[in-house]
Structures are given as C-alpha cells and as structure tokens.
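Closing statement on the guanosine-5'-diphosphate sub-project.
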Amino acid sequence: MSGEESKPAVDGNEERIVQVPPSLTVRDLAGLMDVSPIDIIKQMMNDGIMANINQQIDFDTAAIVGSEMGFEIVPELFEEEDAPRAEPGVPPRWRFISDEDPANLRPRPPIVTVLGHVDHGKTTLLDSIRETNVQASEAGGITQHIGAYQIDVQGRKITFLDTPGHEAFTAMRARGAQCTDLVILVVAADDGVMPQTREAIDHARAAQVPILVALNKVDKSNANIDRAKQELADVDLLAEDWGGEVICVPISAKERQGIEELLENIFLVTEVAELKANPDRPAQGTAIEGTLNERQGVTVTLLVQNGTLHIGDVVVIGDRCGKVRAMFDDQGNRIQEAGPSMPVAILGMPSVPTSGDLFEVVESDRVARDLIAVRVDAAREAAKVSPRVITLDDIFQRMQAGDIKELNLVLKADVQGSIEPIAKSLASLGSDDLKVNILHQGTGNISESDVMLAVASSATVIGFNVEIDSAAQRLAEVEAVDVRRYHVIYRLIEDIDKALQGLLEPVYRDVVTGRAEVKAIFRIPRRGSIAGSYVVDGQITRNGLAHVLRGEEQIYEGKIASLKRFTEDVQEVASGYECGIGLEKFNDCQEGDVIECYQKEQV
Ligand code: GDP
C-alpha cells in the first residue's frame, strides 16, 4: 500500500446503487440492475402493475420496483435549474455540416469503406494499400490498428475504415453514423458476383453511397474479368467501358497490382461530391471503435468529420463525456490536433462507446452534462413523435402526415423462384404518393444484417417461408423492427396493399396474466353464479378477459364481470389469494375449472 491514507472500504451496498434515466423499458431496467426482466415483471405484478418486457416505465416506477428488490435507484443525470430544455423535434441523431456557412467550408479527404463477399480480398486490399503507403512514407512508423487509417497519395489524403464488410457498415449507419463517402466493392474475378456481393451492393445503395468496383485476383489464371462484369451488369452495375457509369479497376491485392489506379479513381469518383468541412470549429464526428486495456485504459478511435479536435477538448459521445488526454494517429505518433476526415485514437473517455456513436466537442464539462440531458430528452421525445422504424400498422398515418414517401422493405424468401413474383407484385402496389422500395431481396433466413439494414433505413422486414435467426430476432425486438413472415404469397401482398391504404387491421395476441382454480360455486339470485377461486399464478384483473378451461377444453371466452375479495370489489387479486369471479353471460363454471385471465396485446 502507498503511504496515502487508506480510503474507507467500498460499502457492499454501493454495488446495488443503480443509475437510471427518466424513462426506460423494463428490459433496460433489468439490464441496469443485472436481474432477469421476469423478476421485474413479477415484482411489478405484486404492485398491481401489469407490464411487458418492452413497457416504458418512468423513473418513479423504476425507483419503487428497484427498492423493493433491494436496489437504490438514483437519477442518471443531475438536474440543473438552468439546464436547457429539450426542444420537441430536435433530432436525436444530429448531422454535420448542414448548418455551416459555405464560406467556412474547405475540401476534406474522402472516407472509404471496403465491402464484398467473404474471401474476395477485402482485408488483403486494405493491408496492401496501407503497407504500400507506409513503406512509401519516410517516417515508416509502426502501424496501429485503430479501426481506420489515412494514407497520402502525392499530397492528397484518403481515409479508409478498417473494418470491412456490410455488417459493420450498416451497424454504424443504424446508430446514425454517416461516415462513408465511397464504397469499394471488391469482387474476385475468379468467383464473380456472390450472395454477399449482392448484399453489399444493396447496403451501399440503401446508404446512397457511390460504388467503385475493384475486380480483384486478376493474377489468378482462372480470373475472368468479362464474366465478372457481366454478372455486375446483371445487378445494375454496368461498367464504364461497357457503356455504363461504374468504374471497375482490375487489381491484384496480393501482388499489389492496380492499387495506384484504384486510388486515383477514388479521387475521380468522390470529386463530384465536393467533400467539404469547416476545420475552424469544435470537432464533430463518429466513434469508430474502442478498446479497453489494463495499461492504457480506454482508447477510443474517433473519426473527425467536421471541425478540429485538440488535446484537452471535452468530448461528448452519445450520453458519455470525457476529456482528450492524449491523441495518436494510426501510426502511433502522438499528435496535438486532428482535422476533418482524420481518424485518431484518444485517451480520456470513461468507457468504450459503440461503433457508430456520434461525438462532438463542447466548451466545458458543464455544457457536456447539459447537452447529455437535452439529448436524452430529445431522443425520448423523438421516439414518441416518430419512431425510427416504420411498421406496417403505422405506415398509412405517416404517409398521410407526409413523413414518408417510400415504404422500404427487406425481402427474404426460401427460394429465388418465389422472390421474383413477390417483388413484381409488390412493385405494382403503391401510388404516386408512396412507392414500395425493396432495399434488399435474397434467399435464406432473416439475418441480423437484414434487421440492421431495416433499422438503418427505416424498413420493414418481410419473410416468405423463412425463419428468423435468433440473433436477428433479439435485434428486431430491441430495435422494434417490424418483421412479418408469411407462407402464402397473396396474404403477403394483401397485407402490404392494405397497409398502403390504411386498411390493415392491427393483429392482437393473448397475453395470459394469471390463472385461478375454481374451488366452489356460489349462486346469487338475479346475478348468476360466482366462481369462488384461488389464484395460482400471476394475477386476475377486474378489467381482464377470461378463458374457462375444463381439462384440455376451452369452454368459455369473454370478460370478467366482477371481482371480489370477500364482499369488497377489487381491481386485481394476486397469486396465493382467494377471490370471487363473475363472468359475463356465463354461469356454468364448475369446481376444478381453471379461469385464465388474459389481455389482448397488439403485435
Ligand atoms: P476477405 O474475406 O474479403 O477479407 O478476404 P481476404 O483478404 O482474407 O482474402 C481471402 C484469400 O484470398 C486470402 O487467402 C488471400 O491471400 C487471397 N487473396 C486476396 N487477394 C488476392 C489476390 O489479388 N490474388 C490472389 N491470388 N489471392 C488473393
């Protein structure tokens, strides 16, 4: 121990103090408390509150439930009297540049992402671009993998994001990041367009990012450039030399052939976009990745997209803030500042952010905390006003309100043969006001990447004769993505058609909240019979619906008409208690029947 006076031991209870935001779901609260959501739902039931896992609850409810479960619930953010208030309509994900005075804008380097089918050479290409460049530079520093790197091509810079693949690309976009100016689509010339090539194309198109094709592995004897170009033409990427607009550069990532030409073409394609930023303002951008190691603590790679980042700056990432204590470039050199399009690794954040979280520099800690409070509020308001994801149920209203002009769909089916007729029929739906736009169609189960694409592009996922992967299912639940599966084509088409016309009937499912066993029957003159029952599970509620089960058979479906404890009317009766249940228009309960209380929940 050092000579320092020892601090009081951490109170064992301290671990049970949980910070929660002003509003959160049952699932979120369970996560923060590190308990099962089921335990929270049970506790809430005991308190007479029926909740499902996605139920939004306020701070007070969380505090009560938490304290009953032995936790101390404290507000996540302290309130300050003059903290700015959230303005309704402030988007939770802010965008860069749009509010800059054009006079302050300067050209910035392009930011490039590499996509393509597995094993077509994305990693080899990224490595070879980087190594060629490091060897060329005099410094020749030790490269550090920080998630992105920048190269210098005769005085002009290009930034590459170092995590190839459309999954990472779309996951970042789903978090609000827009940090790719150009996609390099790597297609192995010996293999051609493969399923993930198609996915990558659709993901790039959904993001409205231009595509430059690198026809790789041309060193291989079985490389067939023309065949690859034909297959690209079949997916509407017509090569320039075939009369189209897509630049295809033959390369060998392994033998480092064609790399310079590829880099030249990056400038050519991105030149039209006139990429600009204002270097003379506090930095804004995207967190690319983060790592935690014992020696250095948390290292976060930030991609500066506007402004300039300096040592000592106070940075807000999502709902966390920290101060830039040290800053490194991708070759491990300590640097003092970083301008637009530059990726830097910084020390000083309290925790590792999620890739794609946006960051910005603010004046002081105080402003940071206020901003976080505003952002949390704004995100909540925005979630209420306009959910990010479009469900078929709300499409008509959002279309009427002018919120959306396109119904984006991700379509997955069991076989190619069913995709075409479905896509064709869907294309014929819609009107001038609202078009059906299939972002991606493919065979196979609904995957995480499909759901991610739906999140990033406000789309609905439609499955025909396919399952949904369990990871995709979890993601869809967390992100509230509308995933609909069908086994009959006309039903699928009919649903979309009805949704477009505002005729889709909401679908409900029964959620059982409790069960009671009938122990005795009391006949009450003029009021029918009352089932004297014992609640064995969950709870029976006065305004609930009921099934009566006799053995395997359901003999009644209707409403609970009265609920009493002894002589008193009550709103609910929890498990372990006896009660008298009256059912609407039903007097035939028998001893031994089970009364199942349920509610209808919209799916
Ligand atoms: P990724 O999955 O797209 O990142 O593909 P990789 O970069 O890991 O490459 C897959 C395999 O293809 C590796 O064995 C590479 O060495 C090989 N490869 C990549 N580029 C070339 C190339 O230009 N020519 C040849 N012959 N092989 C290559």
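Confidence is low (pLDDT under 50) at residues 1-13, 78-95. With this model delivered, the sub-project is considered complete and its resources will be redirected to Aim 3.
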